Amino acid sequence: MRRTLLAARALALALALAAASPAGAIDVVLTPIANGFAAPSAVRSAPGDLTRLFVTELGGRIRIWDGAQILATPFLDIDARVLTQGEQGLFGMAFHPDFPNTPYVYVSYTLDDPANANDGDSIVSRFALLPGDPNQLDATSELVLLQYAQPFANHNGGDLHFGPDGYLYIGSGDGGSGNDPNNNGQTLTTLLGKMLRIDVDATDPGKSYAVPATNPFANAPPALPEIWAYGLRNPWRFSFDRATGDMYIGDVGQGAREEVSFEPAASAGGLDFGWKVMEGDICRPPTTGCNTTGLELPILVYAHANPCESITGGFRHRGTQSTALNGLYFFSEGCSPGRVWAASESSPGSGSWTFEEVAAVGGIVTSFGEDADGELYLVDLSHGELVHVPEPGAAAAAVSALAALGALRGAHRGRSGPRRTGAGGAVDSAGRILEPTRRLPAPRDDVA
């Protein structure tokens, strides 16, 4: 980001939440740059926009941070259309890759329509920029692309991203309740429990989009052609590595495992990530006859150590300001305080990952996002904050200097958190099981 946002970052360092990582690991400083958001659920940037960040709020608004303030007028306000009970709300947004030349923004939310049977349906729709106003979408321009029923209120997924191929990818949860009672994750005749892929720049008969001809089930009825991958439980945040095009998916577990699944950029789709045959790296009961043939097992997995484990998938850090963080995959969980982990691969393409806690925020991390330069951010649901994950060396030096002057107030030091491996549980440095942390309401708390 340029000019005003750079100045805001520097100013915010005086009030930074300094989080020291375990000895020998990298220091990460989480820097709040804005607060006052109402239950923020995602943060995004527009292509080539070096000034603004866009924060979705669960209640149905998208707010603009212009580098100095949150603009008073929302970028979009569809509060009256969005159902926000339990795990429902406005989940995600994605700018058309050619925005603003193609002036469209895509959002996902749960529909508030109590008078009809479609109340609580998942909606993926398109809005157009209001002519003459770069800071506002036309709320009357909505074009619904996808609408599908949710049998229960939880496990909605709802993240949206355009892939390197220019197609729109949509993460869909398994429909909720617990233990996927309808086996949606493994059923190819439903959009639930899937990664979907559609072409928003073309249309098929009877649809407001087209199915890419290269989708793995494009010509394989009765499988639904929009399906790109399956076997997901609740993909709460996925991302594409801007350097490689690889996809990383944080998939919330049932009660035993949390996981990060991986799809290489060269994949032709059709991967089965295992749910509900598997939960992470273990077979689901009954374990007799469990067949893992053909399943794509996660690259990162950890056992539940307290009652609020619920992964928030993130991004590989590719910001231009940082060399120390380059390539680290950051993720968090639906707990308060929100622990932030960084994962690293032992060597490119090895598939061997380790990860450890490097920082924490005071509330629940609902999402990570990138700006146009690839700098990394997160949003804190509980405190309504937008937080920057900056270059650790420069930030730490600034914080140290401010502390020496007595200007740093209320520093929030990170704990010497658990070191974990791809198959490990959560233990402290002495090998003790971590004590449970207090669970707060989150937009995706799971039913056992």
Can you give a write-up of this model?
The model is unreliable at 1-24 and 394-448 (pLDDT under 50). The longest helix is centred in the C-terminal third of the chain and has 13 residues, at 392-404. The strands form seven sheets. The protein has a five-stranded antiparallel sheet, with helices on one face. The protein has a five-stranded antiparallel sheet with strand order 21-22-23-24-28, with no helix packed on it. It is mainly beta and 448 residues long. 5% of the residues lie in helices and 34% in strands. The chain has helices spanning 4-12, 392-404; strands at residues 17-19, 28-35, 40-44, 53-57, 61-65, 76-77, 90-95, 104-110, 122-129, 137-148, 157-162, 168-172, 194-198, 227-230, 235-240, 247-251, 257-263, 278-279, 282-283, 300-303, 311-316, 329-333, 338-345, 353-361, 365-370, 376-380, 385-389, 419-421. The protein is built from two helices and 28 strands.
